[in-house]
UniProtKB/TrEMBL annotation:
Pfam families attached to this UniProt entry: Glyoxalase
Organism encoding this protein: Bradyrhizobium aeschynomenes
Listed name of the protein: Glyoxalase
Domain VOC: 8-122, 138-250
PANTHER family: CATECHOL-2,3-DIOXYGENASE
SUPFAM superfamilies (alphabetical): Glyoxalase/Bleomycin resistance protein/Dihydroxybiphenyl dioxygenase (SSF54593)
UniProt xrefs under InterPro entries: Glyas_Bleomycin-R_OHBP_Dase, Glyas_Fos-R_dOase_dom, VOC_core
């Protein structure tokens, strides 16, 4: 089995012009729990072991401030930094003690596309709470827009040690563990955030979570359906600040024997957007939202 220097997607840092409203949404509607506040940042956990899966920052605009990954060993920091710099990244901060509530050791890079990537080791974890089907367990993946999908996918492979799992006409799927993908790279005219996906315990949880969102006044933006690459059930929503978020479940588990499939494989009949044929074509306002959130400067 491949040894991955990066072992998991842990969290995202989101900038919001209305911190109070965003916190209330992610806590009371989406299903997360506030675990800490420090220096004006609100940290929200899911039911799993990760210290937090979302960190909310007050900012002038809605933006993706950072994506944080967990590394296997402290010795991997040097390897990741060296390879990332060779692949065009910029070192923001070398590995050092993390003063934030999640602790451990942290290193920060800026990818060639301008996304801040953080890497942690020895960070604080929680005892997992009893699983509840209607609440997220952890992050499933982050989908990033790129003006050059293959270049960005190559960066994750050569700089960070990810493996390409599948390549559709518009997206590359890369992994750092047995999940089919931790990062999805989508072809776009701009670099930025496409959406953030949260893992539910089962497809039943996707449905129950979707029901809770509808009851709270947030209609399904796209779905419910089952994706092709990754085979996961999905339902997409738009948060109060315009960020596209996803409930997902049953992500395909793969190993080194998995055969990468290309665009010629991932083709649907006309009018179909998922395996089941249930999800309607994505509405234009959803497509626009998936292009509207940029990387923080």
């Amino acid at each position: 089995m491949t040894r991955f220097p990066v072992t998991a997607l842990r969290s995202v840092d989101l900038g919001t012009p209305d911190l109070g409203r965003s916190e209330a949404f992610y806590r009371d509607v989406w299903g997360l729990e506030r675990v800490a506040t420090a220096d004006g940042v609100v940290y929200l956990r899911a039911t799993g072991r990760d210290h937090h899966v979302v960190a909310l920052h007050r900012s002038d605009r809605t933006e993706l401030k950072a994506v944080t990954f967990r590394v296997a060993e402290a010795t991997d920091f040097d390897t990741i930094a060296r390879n990332a710099l060779q692949q065009g990244a910029t070192l923001i901060a070398a590995a050092a003690s993390n003063p934030a509530p999640d602790g451990g050791v942290i290193m920060s890079l800026r990818s060639p596309e301008g996304c801040t990537l953080r890497f942690v080791h020895g960070d604080v974890t929680h005892e997992a709470r009893p699983s509840r089907p209607e609440l997220p367990e952890r992050l499933a993946h982050v989908n990033l827009n790129s003006t050059d999908v293959d270049r960005t996918a190559a960066f994750y492979e050569h700089a960070l040690g990810f493996k390409l799992t599948d390549r559709s006409a518009a997206m590359a799927f890369v992994r750092c563990n047995s999940d089919h993908h931790a990062v999805v790279i989508a072809s776009a005219k701009v670099n930025g955030l496409n959406h953030v996906a949260f893992l539910m315990p089962t497809w039943e949880g996707v449905m129950r979570g979707s029901g809770r969102m509808i009851d709270a006044g947030y209609p399904i933006a796209w779905g419910v359906g089952r994706h092709g690459p990754g085979d996961n059930v999905f339902a997409y929503f738009i948060d109060p600040q315009g960020i596209v978020i996803e409930y997902t479940a049953e992500v395909l588990q793969v190993d080194d024997d998995y055969v990468v499939r290309g665009p010629e494989h991932w083709v649907w009949p006309p009018g179909r957007t998922d395996q089941w044929g249930i999800a309607p074509p994505k509405a234009e306002h959803v497509k626009a939202a998936q292009l509207a959130v940029g990387f923080a400067a």
